[in-house]
Design brief:
This protein has 129 residues and is α/β, with parallel strands linked by helices. The chain has a domain of 83 residues: Rossmann fold (3-Layer(aba) Sandwich). It has a 3-stranded parallel beta sheet, with helices on both faces. It starts with a helix and ends in a 7-residue tail after the last helix.
């Protein structure tokens, strides 16, 4: 199966509705009240690293979730990259931007843990210090 802009967004709705069969086109288009959805968008964190992720990031943020754009650390200071990052933030397409460093205690690690903590607090769960 080819994954493109449209299918990425569709898969987010499949997750949201709890649909695990990629061939079930009827279920994906069926209306479902927000309270009955398996994974509310408000509890999603989407990490994207390219242009094909931007529509999904925008959709997640507009639905109350968290979208994080990651950028090659070596491109972090390039003017073209900085312009793109600034636009993503200004246009509310992403919640955060960080270098694509997946190591413990990296900026991305702190952002993801903070976003998880926010989700937990909104759900009324106790957050560990």
């Amino acid at each position: 199966m080819a994954i493109n802009y449209t299918t990425k967004t569709q898969f987010l709705f499949r997750i949201n509705k709890g649909i695990d069969n990629v061939h079930d086109t009827e279920a994906i288009n069926r209306w479902l009240h927000n309270d009955a959805r398996a994974v509310p968008f408000e509890r999603m964190i989407f990490i994207g690293d390219g242009d094909t992720d931007i529509p999904s990031m925008k959709m997640v943020t507009s639905q109350g979730g968290c979208a994080i754009a990651v950028l090659d650390p070596y491109q972090w200071t390039e003017p073209r990259s900085l312009d793109k990052v600034s636009r993503l933030i200004a246009e509310d397409r992403v919640s955060y931007v960080a270098p694509a460093d997946y190591m413990p205690q990296s900026q991305l690690d702190v952002i993801v843990k903070g976003a998880l903590g926010r989700i937990a607090l909104r759900a009324g769960l106790k957050v560990a210090p």
